[in-house]
Amino acid sequence: MSRPAQIDPRGARFTASVTAVLLLVTVALGLLGGTPAQLADRIVQPAFLLLVALAAIFVWSAAAGVARNPWSLLFRRLIRPRLAPPAELEDAAPPTFAQGVGALVTIVGVVLHLAGVPYGLVAAAAAAFVAAFLNGAFGYCLGCQLYLLLVRAGVIRKTAAA
């Protein structure tokens, strides 16, 4: 049996912080842009394009592992070398699961926006922002807590991260 992947928790917080800022920008752009009536107008809105990009990063992170997303790579190459070694490492499975939750929430926002639901994109981006902000600012990962709850309930098995 292989040993579970371990990550630097500071990297996860950095990733969450970058994501929170981008989600906050998405919310602001969504509030300014509203929900146009025509589909062609909705798909070129900056808020929509940014949320699609963030959803793609969430999907990538959930599928390839949280350590392989662009913000984690940036952290490892530019920031971590300037820091002392981490006091402890954490299992990558809960943050990777959390990325899947983020993917689900942002994809729902994309679909709602495409369907013309007023402020559906804003609501989904705001929900994802709250989770990313809590993780970035306070180290409290809602998706990780959901993962642990589901493992304890026996709904999912604890797995090693990719």
Automatic annotation (TrEMBL):
Record protein name field: DUF4395 domain-containing protein
InterPro entries reported in the protein's UniProt record: DUF4395
Keywords: Membrane, Transmembrane, Transmembrane helix
Pfam families: DUF4395
Transmembrane stretches, start-end: 12-35, 47-71, 92-115, 121-150
DUF4395 domain residues: 7-152
